[in-house]
Amino acid sequence: MMSTLKNKNFSLILSGKLVSLLGNAIYHISLIWYVLSLPGEQNGKMLTWIMVLGLAPAVAFGGFIGGFVDRYDKKKLIVRSDILSGITVLLLAFLMDQQLLKPIHLLIATCILSISTSTLSIAVRSIIPEILTEGELQAANASNQFIERLTSLLGLLFGGILISFLSVNTIFLLNGISFLISAICEMFIQYASKANLEYHTRTHSAFRDDFQQTFRFLFQNKDILTLMFVFTFVNLLWDPLFMIVVPYVLKTNFAITPIEFGAVEAALGLGFCLAAIYFSKRPGFLQHHAVLFYSIMGVNTLISLFAIPIMFYTFFSSIKYISIYFVVMLMIAGFFSASLNIAVATHLQKIIPQNLRGKFYGVSTSIGQGLIPLSSVVMGSFIGKVHSYIFFVISCALVYMVLLFVPAVSRLTKHLYEIKQHQEPSRLS
Fold first, then answer.
1. Which UniProt keywords apply (predicted)?
2. Are the C-beta atoms of 384 and 244 separated by less than 8 Å?
3. Which domains does the chain carry?
């Protein structure tokens, strides 16, 4: 990790991202608290709409955003994304201070922040391979994962503390300033844009060409297409488990305390951080062909172990510190999940052409996250109607079936192994 941090440009990107994401995490906690504190019975629906609008624009326009990232100067997009986010949140703080804030303002701001944050994320992932050498990519991706999870953990911690001592208006003000500080840090990045200026003047047909070019590349590279299928499938099943079922089970079946609940919620992120630190010091460790298979198997097995205390909760609920079991399981799951994310991110950055990175990350975001809201609604509609352990058993069984019995996944693992074998002699020569 230290070797990549010596790269001034990467350090500036990481510093800006740290400030920006930390402010964003605190903002979201404050926003949820503010919405739930509103009078009336509609705050639950309002919160649902905010959650949907926080994801939907990035999913719907991911491909278009990717096209913009490839077409324009990535440094300028990163800086302007943070400036747009800062101005948006500062306007919310002003409206709240003047007692002019209405629900529609929150919904519009949520849409803007979703698009600006998505643009920032895609631009950062696209610019990293251009400012670092191939040998530094794994450590860079590990550092990137570490920053993302660390800010999430600190956001949970500081957000709750700040709400206790400061008004939501003040927190919004500080958050808006944090975005602008992030933009200032990123202005010092030394980056020569490789974007084709003639490409900027193309008509709206450029977007259609972007999609055609991206999907043509995907269908010509079956391994990448299979990777996208696997990630989409596991996210479709795993995300609702972590976002909906696990909190429901902990609260209703085991009646854990708020402190225990916070520890369990933070455990997954802590596992991510530990993995990021570990693998950043071992460049090349995650290039083994079996990382994809064993990482998914590891996470899936740990998720299946959640079903045991739920199936026999009448016995396990009497155990005083049952939350420790869930903390350990989620921490290890976070470690495996981070190894998977870092390995795949590094592999893709090496094989995707520079002129397609933004478009690819935009399309992959849309496809990978597009079905999560639907699966969350479906799974949430069955909460309380069926035994909770059934969600874990069915989800894990489906993932096992895909890993073990879908031929394309087996071919992917074999092909990655052949690539690895082909690369090793070249390193020795």
1. Cell membrane, Membrane, Transmembrane, Transmembrane helix, Transport
2. no
3. 1-141+148-188 (1.20.1250.20), 219-422 (1.20.1250)
